[in-house]
Write a structure and sequence with these properties.
Helix content is 27%, strand content 23%. The protein has 9 helices and 14 strands. The strands form 4 sheets. Strands 4, 6, 8, 10, 11 and 12 form a 6-stranded mixed sheet that branches. The longest helix has 25 residues. The chain is elongated, with a radius of gyration of 32 Å. It starts with 8 loop residues before the first helix and ends in an 8-residue tail after the last helix. The N terminus is likely disordered.
């Protein structure tokens, strides 16, 4: 007598049977509704039934969930996605065809040969010429919503590096004399501010150790790689942010094949507070995409976002002198120099230089400190350079421009 233990295997058999039935339905759909022998092909019915066969192929309509699941047979999945594109085109729904082809490139890229990658990219560009792809859900007549598909890896982002402001624009906290107001109390208890619980809550976000200023130009440097064998034009590139209001400046770049290219994206925060950099947007191959750092295939090296603190608008001074300008500033770092001038003095000779300061911002200046820094010894410097401190005190109140 033979006993078979089907208590464990039976659910697996049922699941496999259902998946096989779903895949067989796809072949049945083509044979019945859109075969060459059918005088009145019904592509709409064909498309609807193929959507029902997606679970049998382990296909999930959301690209993010699909890539995270990483299940199924890529060859069969690619075939079904191509058939979905064809059915959507035959029904006259160009937006759906563009969406499914975008999904195919986004989720199946690593399973495609270089020739297939090029072929599908060209097909997508042709489809998007009829109906541009956009990162919004598509709602069918049945009420089913097709999630947005973004080309997060076309081009591939190798680096995403927020930049500090130029040295002369960096906010610096004014040190004030502290007054004792009472007894000093010490407690070892920490309420947040670096505690282990807070670190766990903020895992995945990176807090930048520098500040940005409201209404100042802020930049992020991207290093992009075009994996296609032809030039890839990427237009309307903008930074994606959350938090305070941020005005991003669009950029357009043409990327040569297999050549890393640096791109600078910039913008201005219009409010003070915390700003979160979550990625960037692109328009390539006729498809608009929101490329978020957390969704990128190479994005394991990226945090989910970068957080930077934006301080209120700061005044900006323009400096001019009565001396002729020079082309270089010998002995100083170029990024610390905003204006250069030169003069020649012989031993025993003296000269006068008028330095004009103009507030070119709309923020009033409340305090002004003047100091001389040189490569000379402090004693020798004091003997050579002198200025009228009384006149500085009289003119310290500098108003903003209208």
């Amino acid at each position: 007598m033979l006993f078979l233990n089907l208590h464990i295997q039976f659910p697996l058999i049922i699941s496999q049977y259902c998946q096989d039935r779903h895949r067989q339905n796809t072949e049945y759909v083509f044979c019945r509704y859109v075969s060459p022998q059918n005088p009145a092909p019904n592509w709409g019915r064909c498309y609807a039934l193929m959507l029902q066969s997606l679970p049998g192929h382990h296909l999930i309509l959301d690209p993010v969930e699909m890539r995270a699941a990483n299940q199924g047979w890529p060859a069969l999945q690619i075939q079904l996605l191509q058939e979905l594109v064809l059915a959507a085109r035959r029904t006259g729904h160009s937006a759906l065809a563009t969406r499914h082809m975008t999904f195919l490139l986004q989720t199946m890229w690593t399973h495609l040969s270089p020739a297939e990658q090029k072929d599908f990219a060209v097909q997508l560009q042709s489809l998007a010429g009829q109906c541009e792809g956009s990162p919004v859900p598509l709602v069918l007549e049945t009420g089913l919503a097709i999630p947005p598909a973004n080309l997060t890896d076309l081009p591939v982002c190798l680096e995403f590096t927020p930049q500090d402001l130029k040295p002369h624009l960096r906010p610096r906290k004014v040190e004030r004399d502290k007054k004792e107001t009472g007894p000093f109390l010490f407690t070892p208890i920490h309420f947040g501010g670096g505690g282990s619980l807070e670190r766990r809550c903020k895992k995945g976000n990176e807090k930048l150790d520098f500040l940005w200023a409201q209404d100042d130009s802020c930049t992020v440097i991207l290093n992009l790689l075009n994996p296609l064998p032809f030039e890839l034009k990427v237009s309307n590139m903008r930074l994606l942010t959350s938090g305070v209001v941020f005005e991003s400046i669009p950029e357009t770049v043409a990327l040569s094949p297999d050549t890393p290219t640096s791109v600078i994206l910039s913008g201005m925060a219009r409010e003070s507070g915390e700003l979160e950099l979550t990625g960037y947007s692109t328009h390539t191959l006729g498809v608009k995409s929101n490329c978020r750092l957390k969704d990128m295939r190479v994005g394991t090296q990226f945090p989910a976002s970068y957080k930077v603190q934006v301080v209120p608008s700061l005044p900006l001074l323009e400096v001019t002198t009565s001396l002729p300008q020079s082309l270089s500033a010998s002995g100083f770092q170029d990024n610390n120099v905003t204006m250069t001038a030169s003069t020649t003095l012989y031993h025993g000779q003296s000269g006068e230089c008028i330095i004009s300061l103009r507030n070119v911002s709309d923020v009033q200046i409340e305090m002004l400190e003047i100091d001389i820094n040189s490569i000379l010894d402090q004693t020798l410097q004091d003997q050579i350079f002198k200025w009228d401190e009384e006149e500085v005190k009289v003119r310290v109140f500098i108003y903003s421009i209208d």
